[in-house]
Write a structure and sequence with these properties.
Bound molecules: pyridoxal-5'-phosphate
CATH topology of one domain: Rossmann fold
Number of helices: 22
Number of strands: 16
Helix content: 40-55%
Radius of gyration: 21 Å
């Protein structure tokens, strides 16, 4: 299996190169040259395996340059002993026909752990295969990705990781999660600026040829841990296959397939569901849920992708995004794997902040996807309603998906079995969730709110959140935007 670039039809590389390189040189994203398929017998066989077994089976189809031993090493390293009860993606039955796929039982309590626990293993194995030295991961984060990447790469041999976050742009809990990170190969710094400044600074370091040369002299190379890397996307296909296996095991009626609802930001998670569908998982509709930043809802409805609009800060911050990077892969596939067209549309997006798809491409998009959005008031009301009705507490991101799904059902009457992806523990966003269930208990103390939320709902906070209480921060570095490069080089001891 080779990987092609979404922007240049002449690029064709191995999985190991795609993962270790992260992004194609001309800026395109790597996509598999074909999508492997699984038969009914395969699914039946997989449904008898545990998550590790299922993950190895799926990954072996995409990463066929990895040996069985290598895949075993990677997958066990990622999923053995790192998730609650060794169940990375349990399927919770909310009611007849509606399931919640809980993707937040890992070390940082958000779904990014599913990919970022595995990526370090895939990346170091790939680097070894293609003869690269030490990998230095740089991350600019608005919260969840930074912590999940730190946790994944902490003390992984032959890697270093440096994370930058906006000094006043992350929640107190997220800040504490990052500042207390353990590991001898990690460094964390706040920057005086916002998330865009952090992102721009990191991109600048990536593309600085003098710095690149300096790293090379020292046997090092930069790489990226964000969701444009195929190594972050492929682990996410596994949990949709696994969810289907669990539905089979439950004896669920799947005539007509099942729907999947995904709270969406960068379009990585829902794209993984699309790949699972192409592999043979009988997914009917892919329902794309957005918050007030509803650029994707508009795109699915009209074919116009237009980022020239107001940006909202919402109660589901991990979905506050106006450029969904992974949509580029979907565009490429919608056009019949057309790199020239994709490059042209991405250029229009870069130049004018807008592009439009029409005709067959738009019809195809609309036959696959359904879009919907909701605001913060509806999000919080959904948290309260679902807790009242089912005694089930969901976080703000998941609530957006649940609300969009309810609206979809009333609009269409489509009551097929449905799986809603749940992307974070409610305790990661205690302030908003507490406000939804008992506003009188809101406080300025994060840990008090965790306690109150637990009392008000009778649920138990995840251990990694509880463990943060009283933890002493290891990192307290704050730098200016133009000092980021010095921070990196000083940490790597090559300056
Ligand atoms: C990152 C994130 C999302 C968005 O996922 P994408 O793959 O970027 O679409 C949704 N919810 C939570 C909690 C997240 O951390």
């Amino acid at each position: 299996m080779k990987y092609l670039s979404t922007r240049d039809a002449n690029v064709r590389v191995s999985a190991a190169t795609a993962i270790s390189q992260g992004i194609s040189e001309e800026g395109g994203l790597f996509v598999p040259e074909y999508i492997p398929s699984l038969t009914a017998d395969d699914f039946c066989r997989l449904s008898k395996l545990d998550y590790i077994g299922r993950a190895k089976a799926v990954l072996s189809l995409y990463l066929d340059d990895f040996s069985e031993e290598e895949l075993d090493y990677c997958v066990r390293g990622a999923y053995s002993g790192t998730f609650d009860e060794d169940l990375p993606a349990p399927l919770y039955k909310l009611k007849n026909g509606e399931y919640i796929l809980e993707l937040w039982h890992g070390p940082t309590c958000a779904f990014k752990d599913l990919a970022l626990q595995l990526l370090p293993f895939l990346l170091t194995t790939s680097a070894k295969k293609v003869g690269k030295g030490r990998t230095v991961i740089l991350v600019a984060t608005s919260g969840d990705t930074g912590k999940a990447a730190l946790e994944g790469f902490s003390d992984v041999p032959n890697t270093d990781i440096v994370v930058f976050y906006p000094n006043n742009g992350v929640s107190p809990m997220q800040k504490l999660q990052m500042d207390t990170q353990k590991g001898n190969n990690v460094f964390v710094s706040a920057i005086e600026g916002n998330f865009d400044d952090a992102q721009t600074g990191v991109k600048k370091i990536f593309t600085d040829s003098a710095v690149k040369a300096l790293l090379k002299e020292n046997g090092m190379e930069f790489s990226s841990a964000n969701s444009i890397n195929w190594g972050r996307l492929v682990p996410q296909i596994v949990y949709y296959v696994s969810a289907y296996c669990d539905l089979i095991k439950n004896g669920e009626n799947l005539d007509g397939g099942f729907n999947v609802v995904v709270p969406t930001g960068n379009f990585g998670n829902i794209l993984a569901a699309y790949y699972a569908k192409c592999m043979g998982v009988p997914i009917a509709k892919l329902i794309c849920a957005s918050n007030a930043n509803n650029i994707l809802t508009d795109f699915i409805k009209t074919g116009v992708y237009d980022r020239n609009r107001e940006f909202y800060t919402t109660a589901s911050p991990s979905m506050d995004i106006l450029i969904s990077s992974n949509l580029e892969r979907m565009i490429y596939h919608l056009g019949g794997n057309d790199a020239k067209m994709t490059a042209e549309l991405q250029k229009q997006l870069a130049d004018n902040g807008r592009y439009e798809i029409k005709g067959e491409m738009l019809e195809k998009l609309q036959s696959l996807y359904e879009g919907g959005c909701c605001d913060d008031a509806e999000t919080l009301k959904t948290i309260a309603d679902k807790f009242g009705e089912y005694n089930y507490l969901c976080d703000t991101h998941t609530a957006v998906a649940v609300k969009v799904y309810d609206e979809y059902v009333s609009r269409t009457g489509d009551n097929r079995t449905t799986v809603v992806a749940s992307t974070a523990s409610p305790y990661k966003f205690s302030a908003s969730v507490l406000k939804a269930v008992d506003e009188s208990k809101c406080s300025t103390d994060e840990f008090k709110m965790v306690e109150f939320l637990s009392e008000a709902t009778g649920t138990v906070p995840p251990a990694p959140i509880k463990a943060l209480k009283g933890a002493t921060p290891r990192f307290n570095n704050v730098c200016e935007k133009d000092e980021m490069i010095d921070v990196v080089l000083k940490f790597l001891k090559i300056k």
